[in-house]
## 1
Amino acid sequence: MIWKPRQAGIVVCAGTGSMAVPLAAMATTVPLLVLVVATAMAGTGLAVSMTVWASLVQERIPADRLGRTLSYSTLGQLLPVPFGYLLAGPASHLVGLRTTLATGALIITAAAIVPLAIAQVRGLCLALEGTKVADGSVSMARAER
């Protein structure tokens, strides 16, 4: 990565939270152009979030455990999606489409904000260039700040 965010944990959470923007836009009556911009913001935020997260995982997890760790991470990211799809139809029937969309935006926002209550998440950062040590692992000196 060319850009190494100083506070990677915050960047990951903010990028994930950006996925709430299109739902919030759809929950209100905004022009199509605003919805397009909101969706572009969410896509950009998610791309940055995923890139920073993948970089963090690759830096912190030993190579012999990286595949399994990424598998569990991906499972945790994808597992809730079908449940959300299953609940969205009945929820919109019960409380209305706009309320369902707004609730979805609030859930995504909460899921992005709650991890920031943990100091270690807020303090996550990517290692500086050239901090790999002889055994191939990365020095955590910057991560402790």
## 2
Amino acid sequence: MSWDTIDLDREDGVTTITVDRPDRLNALNTETLEALEDALAEAEDARALVLTGAGDDAFVAGADIAYMAELSVAEAQAYAELGHRVTDAIEAFPAPVIAAVNGYAFGGGCELALACDLRVASERAVLGQTEIDLGIVPGWGGTQRLSRLVGDELARRLVFFGERVDAQDAHQHGLVGEVVAHDELDDHVGEMAAELAAKPKHALQAAKEALNQVHESPQSVGLTYERRAWSGLFGTDDQREGMRAFVEDREPEFE
């Protein structure tokens, strides 16, 4: 499949999805969101997924404000539902998803990054839930996912004031996992993704699903899920190979 505003590239188990509207700082209109939803479905066989934006200025600068300005309540509801489908698809994607935050990540762009498993920021990156100054609130999961990363107090400050944080502050507060030089971002994230793609696929998927349970269920339910996921991996080719390789003091060769 091909799209006008989304690029999808595959290499050795790693799929990279790039939002490609650099003239609009990769802002997300309906067409782009629908294409992104399709691309995520197309990429479901990836062993690791990278999400980024085209150009040197923006990861995703946010939702398309020009498009949103005159929406009715019903149209806004449909737009919110589409954005939620995309962020939910990222969160539930069967392999680890890395956000390569190469520039501005405001509003909906920040929410895309929040839905990813890991976030690596360029030193030029700036992030924020800036919706308040547009007379709205985060509508694609930001009110829920942000506090899980940075805590309730900071989440409220970022949402209430619409504050923007640079890469170093974002790292300090746990909004991103690490910061790298701008010209090293693609290579660094590529190395991370390649390392993940070499891990046992079923174990990684089970690990992601179990980790996601922390946010969706009481701890007792999550612990029950973890026990089932752990024991269910025994007898798989990856489990057999991983443990045999350890006993034989060699590197495992996963399928």
